[in-house]
């Protein structure tokens, strides 16, 4: 496969001595060498160099560069334009032009965004300091990272398609780092010093729950309990009025702690009694409990399309046992779990919720559950104390896909040691335990999807045609996350305009239902997280089978996926893993199993395929397979039979694809 030819170049780039070129991206783009700064006056030249620098020495395909720089489907002579642009950029770079190399079907740059690399190194030190419960070191590392910014990232390139999205991610990360620094300031007793800064940030980010909770904590510690409670009440109302969602359980727990004047809030070195979600790094679960108590916030309107699921789930959770909600990214597993937990809590059942997404490292899950259950003190084995504390309780373990082995071990031991406990897990893959009841959470049905979209559209949205609503829902596979994000776009576009622009859904659907850490704020983010959990073999198979426009069988997958890095015997296990992780669906048809990717997953995987430069070879394999298949069926002289006709039309979308790329 072409991808295997790229790897040596990437390795060579990574092993070269320190680059002769520095590219700075945390502000307006600056390009420097040992001799002098380089003035790249043309925005597209700066954009191209920056795009290659962000790849950190990895090759970027022509197809990916063209899409990122121009994003015009009907662009005339795109490859020629790209080559002219590269030539001009090399001319501007002068003696340092050799850092730009032609590799396979793309380009690579032997240089890195040095300020971004330095900021990430500081962020890594921050994570180490958090695990060591050292707020002074956290503050120092956060300050070091933040000092790398000279202004808004990529400030002079934000009209370029890829740069706008990258800048948004960097802006969000900068805010995360700032929040980490402020949280460390509070842990060091500096509530009075940071209150004004927090208040300004909350004004700028009124839906950021972690910031709002930190401001409430700072106000409480400076003797302003009423003002702290007013701020959280305002946050809850705003979330319901503007987004139609509840506050996170952590926010509700903070509000309760303030009302009770919990003594833990006053300790200068202590954080709040719950972990306020942080995408910047994994917290130390023993020092900063994910949740001591789940107090159900008031419902925020209807929970559309899952009413029967909630009822069935509630019936199961009323009895001891283990239930796992399994589904693809964005299917609404966490929301369904929280709705069921709300019902249990309202019925006066003790509920403990643990958010697993930030956790890393051996023993992290048990430590987090122990902290959530209020178990204090050092113990060699936390499980017996956990089992005693959780007997008769509903334990919710949210987002378990990256710690499945730890969660499975915990649940198996709780089944023996806490037989009256109920456990609800959300994950993209099942735990594979005998006692487990795995319940798949799939897309919404057509009517429910449209109803959800209508409710999530802006209150002043223009009237919408049913076909446009249907088209939007279909484009996001009727997944609740995609529908929520699409509804948010109606603040600036009509429904018809949204429907017309969803061809590039992964770039368009960003912003999220709430601007707080730990939850997906885009389809891209949801899929990024799932993709990061895959091994190299599964990633390669996923991107290569994305070439199929419809469903496909195992033989077809072998034709496009097997190569120097994927042996024939590896394919079936890789597909099984992808099915297990809810990234590929499988169904029986005519006595054989056929596979399919959701449209959102296919779009994501195809972008990965294009980025590796493998697209031409995989396309050729797909086309060769379909043409050979049709010839074989025709050669039997039996195309009039029902089985042969079905065989041809099962792959009709890919037959058209093969003819188009012949």
UniProtKB/TrEMBL annotation:
Keywords: DNA-binding
SUPFAM superfamilies reported in the protein's UniProt record: C-terminal effector domain of the bipartite response regulators, P-loop containing nucleoside triphosphate hydrolases, TPR-like
Domain of life assignment: Bacteria
Chain ranges of the AAA+ ATPase domain: 319-454
Keyword Transmembrane helix: no
Biological process (GO), any one: phosphorelay signal transduction system
Domain OmpR/PhoB-type: 35-109
Domain Bacterial transcriptional activator: 114-259
Chain intervals for the UniProt region annotation (Disordered): 269-300
Gene Ontology terms for molecular function: DNA binding
Family the entry assigns: Belongs to the AfsR/DnrI/RedD regulatory family.
Protein name per UniProt: AfsR/SARP family transcriptional regulator
